[in-house]
Amino acid sequence: MTFNMKEHVENLGAKAALSYLEGDPEKNIPKAVKWVKMFDRKGIYSAAYPALEKIASEPQNIWFQFIKSLYSDIDPEVRKKIFTNFLLHSAIQGFNKRTKNEEKYNCNIPWAILMDPTSACNLRCKGCWAADYGSSMNLEIDILDNIVRQGKELGTYTYLFSGGEPLIRKDDIINICRKHDDCLFLAFTNATLIDSSFADKMLEVKNFVPALSIEGFEDETDFRRGKGTYDAVLSAMKLLKEKKLPFGVSCCYTSKNIGSVGSEEFFDYMVEMGAKFAWFFTYIPIGEKALTELMASAEQREYMYRQIRKFRNTKPIFTIDFWNDSEYVKGCIAGGRRYLHINANGDIEPCAFIHYADSNIKDKSLLEAYRSPLFMQYRQNQPFNENHLRPCPLLDNPDSLNSMVEASGAESTYIVKPEKVRDLTSKCRQKSVLWADTAKRLWSEKN
To answer: What three-state secondary structure class fits 185?
Structure first.
């Protein structure tokens, strides 16, 4: 490996800054912002600096308190490893690599890769496509390792696992985390397989963070995921909190659970249980047997839009709304623009919710997939709408997905019964039309 003096200096500087923070985080948080700005010579994250400086100068700010909680609630060695991998390897060095390679190869290079170690799952959640896939598909550990190795060469240092239930392959996941200790790994998990032994392995590798799937309180969670699931999730939370391990939650909002998962009581309880972040997704009707009645209405999607933004000013938990936050990243992040999905069969899909592909990791490299017709269609057509509250080519702009799939020759990857793209988009068209009016009003409020 060629010695890179710039990366070496950045590495030493970042470690020194983190070590400095460990001594007195409350006193030194304002100085940490200056360190970040110093490393960000090109002003990559300049838009965030006014907010960061405001947080750093107000000790009573909810986000100042949130940062302090990362020091009181999380094992110090785990925290340092995660901070180093996220800040230095992914956000700084990784960004520089990705930028150079995007220019060199004229294609998208993702910040994160989502991949499914297995299609198997120990639950049968209502409306989940994984329940149809069975347990026959797996990405062998050599393939998982190869994906990470290829990704790092191009500048990707963040990896997420989904499924199926990824922790059915928990030993392989820990081995990948151990082998690539310069990366950050996260798993979307139903939490039922998290036990004390696995938590100890998380403490050992230090670079793995789970996002526990929960649908609100007990009635809503067990309605969709099965009786007893809610209690299993809470047990996992208590264990992780006791071990001082970071974790978050993953919430799918549907027409049935919106009042629970979007409530102040739910946010407060997740903070009390120790969750440090929350991902919010909306239900997408994938597959012939999809339950379209679970799709959120325009009014419900607006409710989540407003609730999450309100709680960002009052609740010490970092939230990401996969659709409604697209204004901050200027539209859709799929197709390798920020992330992509590799299913348990090896199909390289633009998004976890877009089950079409023209490449498979077993016979193409990542770079070849990024330059494939489907991914180039994404690159050429993003953003799909100037109103970034309508980012998605499926849920918000169905004609965009129709044209990209047909122009690229991509095929359905849905295992049970391949789904024609126009059949899929037809299920979203009415919601798209209704949301367009709401999104126009919300966009006009901001612009």
So the answer is: strand
CB count in 10 Å sphere of residue 198: 20
Identify which of 407, 287, 342 has the alpha carbon closest to the alpha carbon of residue 148: 342
Q: Where are the alpha helices (DSSP H) in 155-217?
A: 170-179, 196-205
Q: Which residues pair with 251 in a beta bridge?
A: 280
Query: What pLDDT was estimated at residue 129?
Result: 64
* Whole-number Å distance between alpha carbons of 44 and 42: 5
Q: How far is CA 379 from CA 108, 331, 366, 376, 402, in A?
A: 7, 12, 15, 5, 15
Share of the chain above pLDDT 90, in %: 76
* Cα separation values, 185 from 81, 173, 206, Å: 11, 9, 10
**What is the phi-psi region of residue 142: left when phi exceeds 0, alpha when psi lies from -120 to 50, beta otherwise?**
alpha
Per-residue tokens: 138: 């797996």
pLDDT tens-digit series, residues 232-272: 999 999 999 999 999 999 999 999 999 999 999 999 999 99
Whole-angstrom distance, CA of residue 225 vs CA of residue 127: 10
- Helical axes 25-39 vs 49-57, angle rounded to 10°: 160
The reported pLDDT for the residue numbered 283 is: 95
- Closest to 378 in 3D by CA, of 349, 352, 346: 349
**390: number of Cβ within 10 Å:** 24
What are the tens digits of pLDDT across the range 111-140? 999 999 999 988 888 777 666 666 679 999
Backbone phi and psi for residue 410, each to the nearest 5 degrees, phi listed first: -65, 150
Rg (CA), the chain: 21
Residue 331 has pLDDT above 50, yes or no: yes
Cβ-contact 234, 273 below 8 angstroms: yes
DSSP per residue, 111-169: SEEEE-SBS--S---TT-THHHHTT--B--HHHHHHHHHHHHHHT--EEEE-SS-GGGG
Provide the token pair at 116.
Answer: 């499914």
Peptide linkage before 383 cis (omega within 30 of 0): yes
Q: What CA–CA distance (Å, rounded) separates 327 from 42?
A: 22
Query: 222: helix, coil or strand?
Result: helix
Largest CA distance in the chain: 58
Distance in angstroms (rounded) separating the CA atoms of residues 402 and 361: 24
Prediction pTM value:
0.93
Q: What is the pLDDT of residues 26-66, one digit of tens each?
A: 766 666 666 666 666 656 556 666 776 777 677 778 988 89
DSSP class of residue 88 equals: I
